[in-house]
Design brief:
Two copies of one chain form a homodimer. The first copy, chain A, is built from seven helices and four strands; from the N terminus they run E-H-E-H-E-E-H-H-H-H-H. Chain A is α+β, with helices and mostly antiparallel strands and 211 residues long. The first copy, chain A, folds into two domains: 2-78, Glutaredoxin (3-Layer(aba) Sandwich), CATH 3.40.30; 89-209, Glutathione S-transferase Yfyf (Class Pi), Chain A, domain 2. Chains A and B meet through helix 3, helix 4 and helix 5 of A and helix 3, helix 4 and helix 5 of B.
Chain lengths: 211, 211
């Protein structure tokens, strides 16, 4: 199995954490893609992934997944223990539901804020092969959405150790990567989000956050 | 089980089709939510779903899912036949990967185009409890993205009956709802997208598209 990664990028970090939580870090060949030099847009990488993004997971049979959803689904099904997507039907559904919310309301909101404002991402408002101009109003909307996301996540975490309840899951990985990503681009977690702060500190102690 | 639906809205349609493909339409109580009269923002519905959106699926044990991802995951796990999310690990991963792409590059792109331009959706550029002003440049970007999505989908469907290969899956449901949604808001499928047109006609013949 091969994992196309970029150690400084937030999206493949979700898969890297997932791999580490499964105890598979030493079993998967990791290939670093240099996003800073736009390697993902070059012909060699485009032949691997026409969508020009990381992460990519390639199975030994040659199947390729180009999204965190696809990569993590493969790892969960092929390596069920420890489960990161739930055990029962209801658990699996609640985790899928929360993972989707963390991705859309959290991760994509931070991306919206960053990619529509950072000078180094001019015309790169979306990832992928096509250029899109930055929209300053969309950067402002992204900032608003991230603030609301902190409130949403804080409410979810009230009285809970983890996003989906008692057990650590992929929803925590996505939320952790979203909050880290926000903090890295100077959108700080509000002091009032006490549950987010408690949970973030607890998840930060996991070895998978430092791989 | 209860399904909170809106028969004219594109998002719950995905779950409605999924339910029909599972043969469960007669077994699930469907509750119509009147989005036209903003019932989703009223106190009664907010007590059911604080995110103020449909679809919502409620299990007999009271667990609630507020996203198509969560609703469909529950139905797949609780009613495995016929499988709509794959059988083997690789199939499940490829379908999850494509489903994600149909959602983000297709469905969300159409939403971006519509919700940032329709006069009836003023200040409702995003679904949910919070108002967001329309951004005309984002409507234009949505239009561009939908055109590119037709190209992406056409390439995926080259030489294939269905989005993920030989078998009908959730990726077809999401793609079908995205293309229908685009067509309904007057973004027509280009004549050059011959694979999309062939596939769309074939899927349109399924009874699940008329429920």
């Amino acid at each position: 199995m091969k994992f196309y990664d970029c150690s400084t990028a937030p999206s493949p970090r979700q898969v890297r954490m997932f791999i580490a939580e499964k105890g598979l870090s030493d079993e998967i060949e990791t290939i670093e893609v240099n996003l800073r030099e736009a390697e993902q847009l070059g012909d060699a990488f485009r032949a691997i992934n026409p969508y020009c993004t990381v992460p990519v997971l390639e199975t030994d049979d040659g199947a390729r997944m180009f999204s965190t959803a696809g990569c993590c689904r493969y790892l969960e099904e092929a390596y069920p223990e420890p489960p990161l997507m739930g055990r029962t039907a209801a658990e699996k559904a609640v985790i899928a539901d929360l993972e989707w919310r963390m991705e859309i309301d959290g991760f994509l909101a931070v991306s919206e804020a960053l990619r529509n404002s950072a000078p180094g991402l001019k015309d790169r408002a979306l990832t992928g092969p096509d250029n899109y101009a930055q929209i300053p109003k969309l950067a402002a909307r992204g900032q608003q959405r991230v603030q609301r996301y902190f409130g949403t996540l804080d409410a979810i975490l009230e009285g809970r150790d983890y996003v989906a309840g008692e057990n650590f899951s992929i929803a925590d990985i996505t939320a952790f990567c979203a909050v880290s990503f926000a903090n890295r681009v100077k959108i700080e977690t509000p002091d009032t989000a006490v549950n987010v702060r408690r949970w973030f500190a607890a998840v930060s102690a996991r070895p998978s956050t430092t791989v």
